[in-house]
Amino acid sequence: MNRVDQRDIDRRKLEIEEIVNHALQSSRTSGDEIPRNRRLAWFKEPGSNQKSLVLLDPKDYGNNPDDPAGYKVYERVRELALELRGFHETADPIPNTLPCRGWYEDQATAQFYFILHLPPECEMPSINTRIRTLHEMYKKSRPSVGARIKLSRSLAATILQVHRRGWMHKGIRSDNILFFSRTPSSWPDLGKPRLVGFDYARRDNPWEYSEKPM
User: Residue 37, exposed/middle/buried by CB under 10 A (0-12, 13-18, 19+)?
Assistant: First the structure.
């Protein structure tokens, strides 16, 4: 990526307009609640007064004794933001991730945030847009065998594309698989999962370390 592309993803918190009291409910795996701060927000387009609705996906600073100052994590987040955008510009087929508009640091919460596009199936995005996790989809009713096969194929194809780009997700679980509805009252298509939550993602290299949970 060139310098223009690099600067284009380095955002500031001032470009984000929070939606008060909006947060997505986390799901449960193994009986434990997974703390998240994933939520919708308004993103102010650089150089204009236009705003678009985006999904903020957090990543903690990390917990690695070999990187006390956080430099490795900082560079990894920056590189990953470029990759999450590049997936949708050059990958074939395009994986079921969400395109990245950029990232920023929030020192108050000790987190980085990826700024993610809402997908095409979210036809009329609003602050009432309902986003469901895989856990929630299964809680409502057990999907048919055909629907589960379609879901499995879609997820497998996405994970394969991520690996082909030289990355490992390292956090595939039910609350990191999201589904979007066309309207707040409609039910999502189980065959269109969106993989997010690249908290512990790393390059598939032997010299790269895996971050530990906080």
Answer: middle
CB 111 within 8 A of CB 37: yes
Cβ neighbours of 19 (radius 10 Å): 14
User: In angstroms, rounded to a whole number, what is the distance separating the alpha carbons of residues 150 and 44?
Assistant: 36
Mind listing the pLDDT tens digit for each residue in 154-192?
999 999 999 998 999 999 999 999 999 887 778 888 889
- Which amino acid is present at 39? R
Q: Where are the domains of the chain?
A: 3-203
CATH (residue range 3-203): 3.30.200.20
Token representation of residue 100? 């990245």
Nearest CA among 204, 201, 211, 213 for reference residue 64: 211
End-to-end CA distance of the chain: 31
